[in-house]
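Quick one: structure tokens for this chain, please?
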Amino acid sequence: MPSRIESSRAPVIASVMASMCMVAIEATIVSTAMPQIVADLGGLRLYSWVFSAFLLAQTALTVVFGNLADIYGRKPIMLLGIAIFVLGSILAGFSWSMPTMILFRLVQGIGAGAMQPVAMIIVADLYPARERGKIQGYLASVWAISAVLGPVVGGLIIRNFSWAWIFWINIPIGMIAAAGFVTFLHENIQHERRSIDVGGATTFMIAVASLLIGLTKIGTPDTGMFAAAAGVFCISAVAFVMQERRAANPMVSFALWSHRPIATANGVALLSGMALMGLTTFVPIYVQIVLHRSPVAAGLALTTMLVGWPVGATLAARLFHRFGLHQLLLTGALLLPVGASLFVLLTPQSSPVIAGIGSLVMGFGMGLLSVSSLVLIQEIVDRSQRGSATASNLFSRNLGSTLGATVLGAVLNHGLTRSTGGPSVTSDQLRQLIELPPGSMPGDAVLRTALQHSLNLTFWAMLAITVVVVAIAFLVPAVELRQANPVTVE
């Protein structure tokens, strides 16, 4: 019944975009409101955990929910994710302290961990690979638009309403998305009823959570927390491997993850996520402090990446049939070091336009790379494993972002320590360097020079990561697109 398939696609994709919008806009809109939230709730020392809690839950549970989508179907897991996310949003708006805010952000992260992978799986089910790239481009544009609108919407809400509404605006969006899935998404596939690997899911979440907590503690005075997190990670990782080897239906199939196309595509996703985090974290600092430009200029230098990404993703859709997934993936990978090399060439006399061009090139490469790698792994597995394969790719990218922030942050701190011969630049000094004009604070020139050399070292590390991305991309085998989509949608 082709006509019914076509008529269902548009509202389902609209629902997918609505659900992705909630996740995409959350980071930027919450960042805008955090000063007011801290002023009301206190707990400045827990500031970073408002974001870390969300990321921890989302990253740890991506693979879990991807596996559950293979067992119970896409719609029930997506609806569950929306319900959890909206519940977390409602509770976050009623937070009365910073610990409760962190707890409710954790709940939001659980919902996001379900929605993000299942949204990609639904797209893969509805569209054959030759059409899927265009839809992936639409989803990429959701992230780009959300990144731009988030601060604007957040600022308007803070100015005219309570900060609670930055969370409560998810309620109508979530209800609309859920209604769309209930009404238009009908799955005719008989899903295999398998036992749930509760032990694997539990040990996996503990291992990932302790890993990310440990990574955030590297280079901090809190050595006790780092040691405890490292110990928990080692124990839970061993327990996870033992559980998965003996489980009848393991949550993570080692055979699936070790399959060459999946292993290499996920390796590309992980390392490109690291490079992207270096771009988004350190370019604004360089533009503002070293180049002496305004925050607006720094934002524009980074915004070009948000232009290049959806353009690359959308263009990939038109090139699938002509060049193939492998060539697009390789092209995207090659563009990353090209863009990263421009940041290595930056000097205090450079124009921020160079940084903007580098961001644009890397964003365009990421658009080609992310879509082609995701579609590639979806095409080499059976539908019953598509959820697990998709989740593995998203998990790799999210983990790469976390690793990138940690590893490149350590490189920056090492460079600062080596340049100044002592402790790194403090947060107060960094704030003064941003807010005050050059030469208005003692040691201004020395600190700026030290920061310039340290950031340059960080950009070299980012370039090295992108070179490794290219090397792994050459190992990704070519995959032929399927001629027909086996899934029927009523």
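Confidence is low (pLDDT under 50) at residues 1-7, 483-490.
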